Amino acid sequence: MTAQHSAHHSGHSFGIDVGGSGIKGAEVDLATGEFVGDRLKIATPQPATPEAVAEVVAQIVAEKGWDGPVGITMPSVVKDQVILSAANIDKSWIGVDAQELFNQHLDVPFTVLNDADAAGLAEVAYGDEIARTGSVLFLTLGTGIGSALLLNGQLFPNTELGHLTVDKKEAEKQASSAVKDREELKTKQWAKRVNRVLHEYEALLNPSAFVIGGGISRKFDKWGEYLDIDTSVVPAQLRNRAGIVGAAMAAKEGVRP
Q: By three-state DSSP, how is residue 158 classified?
């Protein structure tokens, strides 16, 4: 193991973000929220079964020569380290004890949590002041729509607002960035759908702000202008780094959300 990757660098941690299309991992400097070295990305195995995903997670840790605690985010409701939902991964995940599963593949301590929750907490720690203040709905627009509900920087865990029905259809089945790609929607058409979904969230939750993450948040200046809701909407500062960073934070704290 090379010295520069030794986990004994206090203040560094390691995060892995399991998504519908890719499994990504990186060492994170918790002082800044920045990656140390390159992010490693491996395509999510198809089907994304627990065993197959756990093997890739172990491969990332091994390739990066990391020997300290690891945080792992899942696109799932995670309660007491048990996976309770599987929207964009294989259904065989439901009911899996994540501690038991990853224990068989990793020789380091680890923590498993919901991906949007992790991203929201990272945004609170390293992002815009707005994410830390008042009632904030953090959303990741990706394969689906992930949500993290924050009150003055504190998390209400495992919300699944992407599955809320808006106009007879699940929000994420009409307004995720994957749907934009799949249906080849023009930016404006897609932004109108996002706007409709935000209107519904606004009516139900009356947050003080929306923070939008996921890869598409990088292009916020291209589509944000089509939103016409009263609540302020800002792009996430960490873009798609947030899941990995939030995972690394959780690993360091040994959090068990």
A: coil
Element holding 150 (H helix, E strand):
strand 145-151
Whether the pLDDT of residue 257 is over 80: the answer is no
Give burial (CB, 10 Å; 0-12/13-18/19+) of 173: middle
Token couple for 126: 């390293």
Distance CA 247, CA 249 (A): 5
| Whole-number Å distance between alpha carbons of 108 and 6 | 13
Full DSSP string of 190-216: HHHHHHHHHHHHHHHH--SEEEEESGG
Buried b vs exposed e over 140-172: b needs ≥16 C-beta within 10 Å? Answer: bbbbbbbbbbbeeeebebbbbbbebebeeebbb
**Measured distance CA(40)–CA(101) in Å, rounded:** 22
Compute the Cα dihedral for 203, 190, 234, 245 and give only its sign.
positive
Mean pLDDT of the residues in the chain = 94
Task: Give one DSSP letter per residue of 55-77, joined into a string.
Answer: HHHHHHHHHTT--S-EEEEESS-
> CB–CB of 211/127 below 8 Å?
yes
Please check whether residue 87 is in contact with residue 19, taking contact to mean a CB–CB distance below 8 angstroms: no
State pLDDT tens for residues 59-77. 999 999 999 999 999 999 9
Helical H segments across the chain, by residue range: 50-63, 98-103, 115-126, 172-175, 177-182, 187-205, 220-223, 242-253
Amino acid at 155: L
Across-strand partners of 12? 29
Structural tokens at position 55: 């093997």
CA 195 – CA 201 distance, rounded (Å): 10
